[in-house]
Amino acid sequence: MTAEDRVEIRRARLSDLHVVVEIVHEAVAWMKGFGESLWTDAEVRPEAIETDVATGNHYLVHRGDCVLGTFLMQDSDPDYWPEAATGEALYLHRIVIRRAFAGAGHSRTIRDFAEAEARRRGISYLRLDCDRERAGLNTLYAKLGFRFHSEVEIGDYYGNRYQMAVDQSKAKG
Asked: b or e along 50-86 (b: 16 or more beta carbons within 10 Å of the residue's beta carbon)?
């Protein structure tokens, strides 16, 4: 396998902002085609995404020069996990794989990357949430090894929170 064939993940840079915005907006448009929404307009404004990219929390999934998707990974999530201590988990949000590359296992690649990063940092869990009505997404997270943790209600958002324990015995060193 050459470097051009290998799927890799790296932090997005400010110079990548246009690509991140394009991918997120592509997902928003796709979901609107089903009469559903993923995020609020405020969450996907370029300025909001720029803040996440500038803090080093956005990542790109790519094969060579081709960007396949993006996601956000944070070390705290006071909105959806307010009771959690900073540093006990890594939180995944806005996992987006471009439609042309959907179904090829890239969500598992993201999960594996986040798990390795958590292991490297000595962090015990990966966590995420999703709308409780999105059956396909809930099923995907379960297939990726996340276990239902609890429900969350924030305004008119009703979500399921998921967590996956990180096996620290696999840590290198």
From this structure: eebbeeebbbbbbbeeebbbbbbbbeebeebbeebee
Structure tokens at 107: 């969500």
Contacts 24+ apart (CB under 8 A), 140-146: 140/107, 144/107, 144/108, 144/111, 145/111
d(CA 49, CA 18): 10
Contact 123, 87 (CB under 8 A): yes
Residue written as token pair 């915005």: 21
Q: What is the pLDDT of residue 39?
A: 81
Q: Is residue 2 part of a domain?
A: no
The per-residue pLDDT for range 45-89, each reduced to its tens digit, is 999 999 999 999 999 999 998 999 999 999 999 999 999 998 899
Q: Cα–Cα distances in Å, from 67 out to 22, 62, 98, 101, 138?
A: 11, 4, 8, 10, 25
What integer pLDDT is reported at residue 11 of this predicted model? 96
**Total structural domains within the chain:** 1
What is the share, in percent, of the chain residues with pLDDT greater than 90?
Answer: 69
For residue 113, tell me if it sits in a domain: yes
